Structures are given as C-alpha cells and as structure tokens.
Amino acid sequence: MAFDAAVIGAGPNGLAAALTLARAGLGVRLIERNSGVGGAARTRELGYPGAVHDLGSAVHPMSLVSPFFERVGLRQQVDFIVPEISFAHPLADGRAGIAWRDLEKTVQGLGADGPGYRRLLGPIAGRMDATADMLLHPLLRLPRHPGALAAFGLRAAQLMVPRLGTGEMSAAMLAGCGAHTAGGGRGPSATGAGLFLAATAHSAGWPIPRGGSQSISDALADMFTEAGGRIELDTEVTDLAQVPEKTVLFDTSPEALAAIAGARLPEKYAKRLRGTRRAPGSCVVHYVLNAPVPWRNAALADAGTVHLGGTAAQIVRGERKARIAVTGSPYAIVSQPSRFDASRAPEGKHVLWAYCHVPNGDPSDMAAAITRQLEAVAPGFTDTVEYSEAVTAPGLQAQNPNLVGGDISGGMTDMLGMLVRPVFSADPWATPAKGLYLASSSTPPGPAVHGMNGHLAALSALRREFGIAG
Description:
alpha/beta; 5-stranded parallel sheet; globular
C-alpha cells in the first residue's frame, strides 16, 4: 500500500501529527522504534509486580486546556481524574500552600498572601481558553485575544520583580510552578510558563489519567487507526532511504532529524539542529509504598502534585545550581497517582512518582536525595518504601532518544529557546528540504503533553505539500 505521508516517532506529538493528517483524508504510516506507542507518555510495570509507573509525566495540566485535544475529543476518550487540590507546597516549618482548584478557597487559605495571589492569577484563570489558545501557539503570531495577552503580560512582568505583590508562601507556590521549567530562570519565558501553569491549577485543574499516561497515547492511537492510519512498531528509522514517502514528519529530537535526513538538509540548517541548546536533565524515581505518604501536614494527602524545595529563593538557587552541578537538596516534583487511581498498584500498596533536575547528561542517581526531601516533610516515609527505581538522565535518553541528556523540555525554554525552536521562523516546523517537517517538542509551542507541536506541524505540511487548509 502506498502512503501519502509518514510520521517517525509515536509520542504524543507524533500521534497528534499522524491523526491530523489522517483526518484530513491522507494515507498515513506512523513508525515507532519501541514496542508500543507513547514515547515519554508511557506507563509500564517495572520491578514490582502489579505496580505500574508513568515513565514520563504522571500529571498533565496541559491536557485539559489543549486546543488540539479539545478538537479531537480526547476528554471523551480518557478518564481524567482531577483532584480538588491541584498542587501543594510544604515549607520546612510544617506550613503548606494549598492550591485548590477553587481559587477563592486557595486565597482564603493563604491569609495575608491571598489577595496578591488572586490579583496575579484570577484574571488569567478567568480567561483560560483565550490564554491557552495564545500560549499553545507560536509566539510569532498576531494575537487573537489581545485582552488575555495584556492581562497575562502585565502579571508576568509583575512576577519578574521579586516579592512584588507576593508574600513568602505565595511566592514559594509560584516558584514551584516556575521550576517545572528546568534551569531556574527568571526571564519572561520561564516566568510566563510558571504563571500559566499555576493558573491552570485554578481553571481546568491538574488531571491524572486513569490507568496512567498510556491512556492518553492509546486513545490517540485508536483515533488514528480508526481514521485509516497504520502503526508500525519495533521499527527504528536511521536513514531516510528507509522511508519512501515524500512527506515525512519527525517526532524526534532535532539532532536525530539531522542524522536521519543527512544530505537532504542544507549543512547550515543541519548544524543548527545538531547544536540545539539543551536544558538540564532530569532523574526520575519510581517508588512502591506499603502505605500512603505520611505527610506531616495532612492536607497534602489530597494534592495531586506536591512541590518540594523550600522557599522561592531556595528553589531558584537550587535550580540555577542544577544547570552545572548536582545538589543534595534538590527541588522535586512528586505525585502519588494511586491515591486517586487504585488500578496503579496492588491492594494496600501505592506508587509514587518523583523527579528532580540535574546537569544535562549527568548520570547521578538522585533517589537518596529525593527520599531525604520526602522524609523531611513526611517523617516515616522511608519506612513505607518497599521498592524504588531511579532512572537517571542518561537512562531517560535510553528509554526515549528524544530526551537528549535527560532534557524533557526539547531544548532550552528561555526566551531565546522559545523563539529559536529550532530556528527563528513563522513556520518553524518546515525544514528547508521539501517534504520534511519537525513535529516534536523541540518546536513551538514547546514541552508538555498537549499535542500542539505535532498538530501544527501537520497543518504546515497539509498546507505546503497538499494545498489543504487545516
């Protein structure tokens, strides 16, 4: 059978690209090196029978605000569990900032910090559809929602001034959201990303897919095959000669695109791909517990995500250090999916997912450091651990070659990294070689599971190669 297009890589963006092309009426072949789809959005049993772990992110704040996922009806295909507490942020003295989905409940809990928190996040959360449409598209686009842009820009600028309009607790909560972007930057891109993430906590919420992240990938794969597409697993593409289709989309790293396409790409462009600026790496630790986490502050038990790392200043210092060195007290992002989804672990057991940032490519096993961070806010945590497995930064790349050096962001996410992704262009998905497109998180609008990178790359290909408007 002849196909109109091929997509290399079946992560969420490859699946989104393939689905977009197939629903436009094209014959599409999706090629994946692994034995299953999903890329970093996979869920697997590891070394403890009956316990399943998300290999990449366990919580997906962008999934319920993604224009593409809304367009294809993903929410009707996946059972998203949305905790009433989106995230929590404990401090060393036992206090904790609790980010309820209900903004007013959050404001009340923050006391004197509450009004400033509301002033920052209320106007953004209240315009979430417009804000998401704006931020989950390329920055080089005429704004369709100038009111939302103005509200967001004003508050991002305010947040870049330390302690302006925020108290200790609210500042720590916002810094914890900002530190999802590795590197500890305080520039407009990192600040804006943290602000957007925090605002989603008070609109759609931070959902956990029942059954794990694999549920998202499997739903997209099912929709793709229902649209007539074909998936080929256990097939690694190392040379473009293996792919006869004239239109090829790459859900790969820029470096892999350069290697696979070879002489098809101009050397100047290929050099740019090979020189992608990389964000710090990550180390993920998977735990199996014999009891729920014994949080000192009981309110944390109902939080879908917990940020560990102390005050805003401590988080920023630690994240900046993580660019170049391993720290003994890292900022860590923690989630206990089995608290909300009993299918994740055997009866009476729990799975816990945690990760922290390390220098890109650093092979350090951070399990002991993250366990210490947890023990500090959950005395007795160590006694609950029956199994743990660390996946180092090089280990993440071995699981998924797109995560170069353990970089889960597809490259730096500072302002330069977001504008030059991988090149400065109004159509950054199209390469100089006719028919070749980059569709991974190394293109706008950047990282997270929202499918927009692949969808926008496919729209570019449809327009350029087939004269089809998306």
